[in-house]
């Protein structure tokens, strides 16, 4: 099925889609019976793997002495580059899952020790001796920033340079200007469930249970790493304990579990120990960004410049921090630029709203600085520079853009009129009070997605797709979609996800999951309805579905009775027409924050947060609110706490566990509120809905930074805003 534009359809009735729904997988989650990869039980002999990470960042393995480790109790095998074929790189990442002799980054896996128990594997791993020849690597983004070349374009690598008009001369003549440099640090995903895999081979067929957001990427990259055909891999991820991009594809746990299972003939379980996650896997790279804004006295931007440099290992991608600047505000003269320095730190990759979140952390402080210089309210300044057309392609409209509505609604709801434009002018006791605002923008891509829908002989409707639920609520929105299509409730639907044997979806990533996978289920439901109509000798238009009944020319038949003879099943895939490219597809939002800053210690307390989001129809307002609330907490982390500290002599992230890498929790924020703009986007898909998960993070950190400035009069342009930077 090819999607172009949605007309009026069943979802407009707001029966199930659009209504808050409890998670259908909730009881499994809270009772501990949702099985994660590491909890999977098998009826066969199991061994445990323990991964050993490289102790150097760059150089070579000069020798391995595994005699003591091999003779340790319970040890079955030890796998290194010396005793298995060379591991290949996948299509998304450039670091190999098994290093040696060349080492690409610190904690790159150099061995997996396989033993009868986890403890035995761990003990033997401690006895493994690996000798290294350290070479000099590059670990300082700051020292390479000035000489870094432009990045290259390609898959998930946006154009390095975009321009419109004459930025330099417009900026030069602008009456009001901001020209500042902002920095964002390396960040770790720090999701609850560390990477884990259970793998075994059934002859030449590899089975693995793992936590991978996009099974199609996981299978592709595992096949590339092992040099086996994709068809020989069955990957399952029915439940995933959180992920923000680093589980987009397979990591060392999966590749090494598969190798270990192959070599030992056993089923092998591997989890990355928490201290390995930060350096062994991938992270959000640090950026150094220069933002130049030029405006007329009326607040109209005439020049927007945004240049960013980030680092990565050879072959790695840039952190596309200028991406959302290409879509956010109007200005006739524009220049954006991405540079990429080659570093030998662990690989940088996608983390929630990649590029967009750190980019807005810079741009949206700059907007606050400009508002102050102009003497224009920062909400107003953003509205003045709003546009319905793509800023770099003035003929191209947005499919839907309610940014100004988000800002206005947020200002009213939050009590923005109580904010004082004068910094450091509001105080309660020893607490300086301030409010800040930021716009939010995040792309709304969709991808082809397939599903199979079956009317079972017991009358229940079964939905299958290899889509994942990473804690976002996918099970529930797919049940909602199918329920509406057949006039049922979510209680009548069984959803099965996370198995590469099911029809292919694009998985969870890029905020495309909700729109794409519901569209795939919609297509499969239409295909099943066509089949039913065909069997009844009527046309699809003669059929309608409500209250568990199928209505044909005024006659009602229980849906259940149709399948009594045997199940009826249909599979279909939703794809997208070229015409969709006539529009820019983005989601929008506005964040409002109130902070209190202690005037003696400069401790920051976030008091209140409000997010107003514009993402088309909200399929499940309960789950969507939950996503945005989580994004706001994560944004607080980005603003105030999160930073992987680089050891620039040895090339690794020092604070590589949850004791050193600090993240906030919901309880750190006394009041959080989320509002969804009541609107739909006909160009987003049949449900007229877009994703919200990554939108919820963008704009949060700069709103906090701006509130801190409003409270203290101190402008920090270097994240995270720890109290030492305010003293
Ligand atoms: Mo997201 S960083 O695309 O999982």
TrEMBL record:
GO terms for molecular function: iron ion binding; oxidoreductase activity. It comes from the Bacteria. InterPro entries: Ald_Oxase/Xan_DH_a/b, Ald_Oxase/Xan_DH_a/b_sf, Ald_Oxase/xanthine_DH-like, AldOxase/xan_DH_MoCoBD1, AldOxase/xan_DH_MoCoBD2, AldOxase/xan_DH_Mopterin-bd_sf. It holds the Pfam family MoCoBD_1. Residues 31-136 form the Aldehyde oxidase/xanthine dehydrogenase a/b hammerhead domain. This is Xanthine dehydrogenase. It comes from Alteromonas confluentis. The lineage of its organism: Bacteria, Pseudomonadati, Pseudomonadota, Gammaproteobacteria, Alteromonadales.
